[in-house]
Structure formats: structure tokens, C-alpha cells
């Protein structure tokens, strides 16, 4: 069984890297060919290519995605709880959007390079002054072609509960009194030796590459996404509190103890 799992992981990582490199190159080609004609065309092209990547990545990783509720259409601002670096795959599967991510991801092997090329927005959470810059980028990034997705917990967890939301990056929708959509995401592993809380969720001081290698060994992973309604408030702290309560209510814990 161990040899079979290792062979599965080996085949998957080759397939995943191939799909991802193809996605980045194809996106870059769209930037070059369409950039002089229409910026909205560039974003539409990126959305189509990323959806292709998310669809095939889900197949390669053995994701079985179950969705309730209705994914919003652009333009939108959406928040979700955060459990793993793979959260972006099922969310990109259903949403035309870019993500806000912590700047440390830029230094990750391969993933850092890929996410930068795909237009992910990065914030340095150690610099309070970077919040103002990021709120401007959020305003510039939400348009008729795409929305913006934020993980307001500021970190990923093992999925026992939804962590408190940080309100700083909710300034733009609060000022505009813009409705903010929300979603909750959860995982189930069908491999009893590799439970989702430790082998899909990524938290604490886990090293990225060893964790990803073990995740690749899991034959099937059930992904549960619940898209909720939108919430609005003119005060970012009030908005943050309302969204955290809504996501917590719809969230299905990965682990209960």
C-alpha cells in the first residue's frame, strides 16, 4: 500500500506541475497578445485559463467537490475561512476572481512564482502601512470581469473552528457599503491514515513540501463549499464580525476535538 501511495503521489506531482506550468505560460501569452487590445480581454482570458487549471488540478488531486448555495458573479468581494494552500483550487473552480495572499507565499518553491504570474495580490501583514496600498489594489481589481477573494482569518487552521476575522482589508467594501459575499470551505479525507485535519489542512509550523507530498498520496478528498448570501455594513469592524458569524454558522468542522 505504501508503495502504491508513493507511486500515486509521484504521478500526481508530475501531472500537477505540467498543468500549472502550462497554465502560467498560456496566461502569459494572453497578456502579450491581448494586452495591447483590451485589458478586460486579458482578465477574461486569465479567468478561462485558471478555470481550466482548477478543473484539471481537482481531477489530479482526487477532489470530489460538493457545493451548496450560489457562487457570486463579478464584480464581487468574497470572504472565506482558510484551511490550506489548496483552498484556491475549488474556489477558482467556481469563481472568476483574484486572491489576496500573504507576501511570504512569493518565496515558496514553484507556487510563489506561479501565483505571482496569475495575478494574485500580496500583502505584507508585518507592515501596517501596506494595508492602505492593498485597499487601493482591491478597489482597482474588482471589475465587471472579476471579483476579489479574501481569507480574513489571516492564517490557515486545522479546521476545528473559524478563527476571528481581521477587519483591516474590509475597509473598501465598508466605505462603499458594498455587499460582501461569503463562503465556508471544509475537507474530508477518505484515507483513515491521512485525516484531512493533518494532511489537507496546513497549519502551525508544518513544512510545505513534505505536507504537499503526503497530501498527494490521498486517493480521494471530499471538498465541501457553502456559498452564503451577501452582508453589508458601513463600519469595517461591524462587517467583519457579521461575516465571521455567518461563515462560522455554515462551516462544517474538519476536526471536533
Overall description:
The model has no long low-confidence stretch (mean pLDDT 91). The protein is 44% helix and 17% strand. The chain contains 9 helices and 7 strands, in the order H-H-E-E-H-E-H-E-H-E-H-E-H-H-E-H. It has helices at 2-34, 39-60, 88-94, 111-117, 130-141, 171-175, 196-199, 208-216, 236-250; strands at residues 63-68, 77-80, 97-102, 121-123, 147-150, 180-189, 221-231. The protein is an alpha/beta fold and 257 residues long. A 7-stranded mixed sheet has the order 1-7-6-2-5-3-4, sandwiched between helices. Helix 4 links the parallel strand 3 (97-102) and strand 4.
How would you summarize the topology of this molecule?
Layout: H1 2-34, H2 39-60, E1 63-68, E2 77-80, H3 88-94, E3 97-102, H4 111-117, E4 121-123, H5 130-141, E5 147-150, H6 171-175, E6 180-189, H7 196-199, H8 208-216, E7 221-231, H9 236-250
Which key phrases capture this entry?
257 residues, alpha/beta, seven-stranded mixed sheet, 9 helices, 7 strands, 44% helix, globular
Amino acid at each position: 500500500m505504501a508503495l502504491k501511495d508513493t507511486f500515486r503521489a509521484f504521478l500526481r506531482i508530475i501531472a500537477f506541475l505540467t498543468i500549472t506550468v502550462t497554465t502560467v505560460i498560456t496566461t502569459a501569452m494572453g497578456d502579450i497578445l491581448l494586452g495591447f487590445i483590451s485589458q478586460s480581454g486579458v482578465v477574461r482570458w486569465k479567468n478561462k485559463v485558471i478555470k481550466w487549471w482548477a478543473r484539471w488540478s481537482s481531477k489530479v488531486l482526487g477532489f470530489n467537490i460538493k457545493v451548496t448555495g450560489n457562487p457570486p458573479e463579478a464584480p464581487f468581494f468574497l470572504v472565506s475561512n482558510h484551511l490550506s494552500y489548496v483552498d484556491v483550487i475549488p474556489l477558482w473552480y467556481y469563481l472568476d476572481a483574484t486572491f489576496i495572499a500573504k507576501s511570504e507565499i512569493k518565496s515558496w518553491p514553484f507556487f510563489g512564482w506561479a501565483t505571482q504570474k496569475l495575478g494574485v495580490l500580496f500583502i505584507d501583514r508585518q507592515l501596517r502601512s501596506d494595508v492602505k496600498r492593498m485597499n487601493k489594489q482591491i478597489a482597482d481589481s474588482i471589475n465587471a470581469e472579476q471579483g476579489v477573494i479574501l481569507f480574513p482569518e489571516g492564517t490557515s487552521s486545522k479546521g476545528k473552528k473559524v478563527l476571528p476575522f481581521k477587519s483591516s482589508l474590509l475597509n473598501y467594501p465598508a466605505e462603499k457599503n458594498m455587499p460582501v459575499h461569503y463562503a465556508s470551505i471544509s475537507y474530508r479525507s477518505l484515507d483513515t491514515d491521512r485525516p484531512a485535519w493533518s494532511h489537507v489542512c496546513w497549519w502551525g509550523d508544518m513544512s510545505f513540501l513534505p505536507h504537499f507530498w503526503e497530501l498527494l498520496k490521498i486517493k480521494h478528498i471530499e471538498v465541501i463549499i457553502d456559498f452564503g448570501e451577501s452582508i453589508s455594513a458601513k463600519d469595517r469592524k461591524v462587517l467583519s464580525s457579521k461575516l465571521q458569524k455567518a461563515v462560522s454558522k455554515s462551516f462544517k468542522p474538519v476536526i471536533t476535538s
